[in-house]
Amino acid sequence: MFGRVIPKNFRNISLLSRVWSGPNGALAGKQAEQKMVTILRDKFPKASLIEVTDVSGGCGAMFEVNVVAPEFKGLNTVKQHRIINEILKEEIKNMHGIRIHTSAQDT
């Protein structure tokens, strides 16, 4: 009586089919990578490493960001990640997820 009733014409939509893949599929992921690298390069001109990788298979839904910059010196990991989140907040709105790795470079 309290069970879920599924009509006969109900169509199950795969969750994976609903993941945003951008207008050009893999191209969208590469363009997003390049855009984020440019944004981070502007904010961290002395960084020894800035890498952005689409880890979603090219659809632009999940990214991994690596930044090694002197601006992080003396900041804990949470503060470092908050800086990255704030810098990339507009790009993050269009993502499923993001992995962030940061550290202060030795000068």
Protein model, in words:
It is a single chain. The chain has 107 residues and is α+β, with helices and mostly antiparallel strands. It has a single domain, classed as 2-Layer Sandwich (GMP Synthetase, Chain A, domain 3). The protein is 31% helix and 19% strand. The protein is built from three helices and three strands; from the N terminus they run αββααβ. Strands 1-2-3 form a three-stranded mixed beta sheet. The longest helix is centred in the first third of the chain and has 18 residues, at 26-43. The chain is globular and about 35 Å long. The termini are far apart. The relative contact order is 0.18.
Give the count of structural domains: 1
- Tell me the name of the CATH homologous superfamily: BolA-like
CATH architecture: 2-Layer Sandwich
Query: What is the CATH fold-level name?
Result: GMP Synthetase, Chain A, domain 3
Q: Give the C-alpha Rg.
A: 19 Å
What is the overall number of helices? 3
The CATH C-level class name: Alpha Beta
Please provide the ordered H/E string of secondary-structure elements.
Answer: HEEHHE
* Percent strand: 15-25%
Proportion of residues in helical segments: 25-40%
Number of strands: 3
Strand arrangement in the largest pleated sheet: 1-2-3
- Average predicted local confidence, pLDDT: 81
Structural class: alpha+beta
Given as residue ranges, the uncertain stretches (5+ residues, pLDDT < 50) are: 10-24
Overall geometry comes to: globular
